[in-house]
Design a protein that fits this description.
alpha/beta; globular; 6 helices; Nucleotidyltransferase, domain 5; DNA binding; X-over_junc_endoDNase_Mg_BS; hydrolase; endonuclease; nuclease
Amino acid sequence: MRVLGVDPGLTRCGIGVVEGGRGRQVRLVAVGVVRSPSTEPTAERLLHLQTELDTWLDRFQPDAIAVEQVFADVNVASVMHTMQASAIPLLAAARRGLPVELHTPTSVKAAVTGSGRADKAQVTTMVTRILRMESAPKPADAADALAIAICHLWQGTAAGRLQDAARAEQARLRSVPGPSTTRAAVAR
């Protein structure tokens, strides 16, 4: 499975693509940051982000998109810009029919480091180790995008196994004669 992770931001938007599956090492496919100058109008900055994201989607053909859920902060203007930027990958996923999932910062940190309270340095260190990179991805937005993609890959793989097990159990239960079938057979 190939996942494109997005750490949304209007000035810097981290994008990372990882690949992996059950019993396979997670592999780095690509990582980068889309930048837009704060001097440009917001609409132009969002268009630039959309164009760059579409280029990544065309080039890397992910199976899913994972986006970090916006965390409310005291800086309302910053939160608004981040929320606007987070809409771009959601729309891109809908246009392409790709599954998209929002992950909280705490769940991403917990998945990658084992602690939902990890700091950015710990996340970057673990991403570097997990992906066996020679050097840490920079800036932090790039490392965060990879962490989001890894979190989604791991949680999606586990969720998929649980769904498969539930479907198998349901099929097994449908094939086992129920109480009414057993009683009918005994009554004959």
